[in-house]
Amino acid sequence: MTSEEKYNRSLELLNAYILDNHMRHTAEREMVLQVLTEVKTPTFTTKQVENEVSKLHISLPTLYNCLRLFVSARILYKIDRVSGMQQEHYGWHVDAKNSMIVVCTNCGRTARFVDKAIHNTIYNRKYANFVPAHYAMFVYGQCRACRRLIVKRLQEAAKNRSRSSIE
Ligand SMILES: [Zn+2]
User: Fold this and answer.
1) Are strands 99-104 and 136-141 parallel, antiparallel or unpaired?
2) Alpha-carbon torsion 64, 65, 68, 69, what sign?
């Protein structure tokens, strides 16, 4: 999905939600939505959102209201701080069809991946009283750069420990 398609689909959902809930249209919401659709990673952290939106001169409370509204309108989904993640993550409901995403719980980096075998398993299995429409899968861990840092830190700690035991 291109960022333009993402924006158009999201705007449709936003307008429908505003209409259903008798809310006012605000330029800020559309501006925030526009900026978010230009983020290249499949998911983004609250920190990333704050950085992206800082050029719009929108207050943080307004930004967080927008995010909450986008989640309610099923434009975004929120990944809570699970598996040791340090920040909340948001992803696109409108682009979540059959997503498989690896998430680094240390720095928040995300990447999409494809696994035909898992895809087939999900669609070929029988579900009791349920028909699957689509799925989203997250694999949590550490990216290569963070892993390298963690290993380095562990090695330094081990070195310091053996040094102090000699002294
Ligand atoms: Zn990382």
Assistant:
1) parallel
2) negative
Q: How far is the centre of ligand 1, averaged over its atoms, from the C-alpha of 103 (Å)?
A: 8
Is residue 93 helix, strand or coil? coil
Q: How far is the CA of 114 from the centre of ligand 1 (A)?
A: 20
CATH topology of domain 3-147: Arc Repressor Mutant, subunit A (1.10.10)
Neighbouring residues of the ion ligand 1, judged by CB less than 5 Å: 104, 106-107, 109, 143, 146
- Tens-digit pLDDT string for the chain (167 aa): 788 988 999 999 999 999 999 999 889 999 999 999 988 877 888 888 888 888 888 899 999 999 999 999 999 988 766 656 667 788 888 776 777 888 888 877 788 888 999 989 998 999 999 988 878 788 888 999 999 999 999 999 999 888 877 66
Domain ranges of the chain: 3-147
Alpha carbon 60 to chain centroid, angstroms: 19
Find out whether 88 and 64 touch, Cβ atoms under 8 Å: no
